[in-house]
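Researcher: Here's a chain I'd like modeled. Treat it as a single chain, no partners, no ligands.
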Amino acid sequence: MSLLVTTSLPGLEEKEGNIYLGNWCSRDTYILKNKEVINYHWDDREKLKRDYDYLNNFYERLLIAATNKLNEIHNVNFSVNYWRIHMGFWIYNFICSFFEKWENINKAFKDRPDIKKTKILKNNFSIYYKDTFEFNNATTSEEWNYAIYCEILKYLNKKNIIKIDFENFTKNLSIYKSFKPNILFKFKNILIKVYNFFF
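Model: Modeled as a single isolated chain. Structure tokens:
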């Protein structure tokens, strides 16, 4: 019975029977491609192109839907480009990050049906952040990526899309979120204020 290891956090592996979601799952060495490592889904360049087109189209549809909803909530009539400036970067990063992890999990269970268990985060973890900068900083951490993989696995198991046993894994996750404004950040804020003034 193989165990799926999703990141390089200590404590996720067993002595044997590990299946690694990718080369990033080793803390000490870069794992060479072998039968215990799932091939990265975007190594298939045709899939990468298809997914790129899909994500761009999905982003535009989501941005239009968000524009309509936010205009309704705030009783305003701002354009799609207005909302694109304010939150487009975050939306695009969000959907690409989650889609990439979703596809990693899908490929793992497609390629290795012998995966039957994984270590899942027992304690609650917040994936909500006050702004784009906190979000971007958090997404570069191993802890955040592990927590998202846990949420995806729990969802797929609950919906009976996959069958997997969970071994509880308790860890206090410390996510780096702080951000110090730099010149580029300040310049962007000035541009937004100018745009808001004229449009």
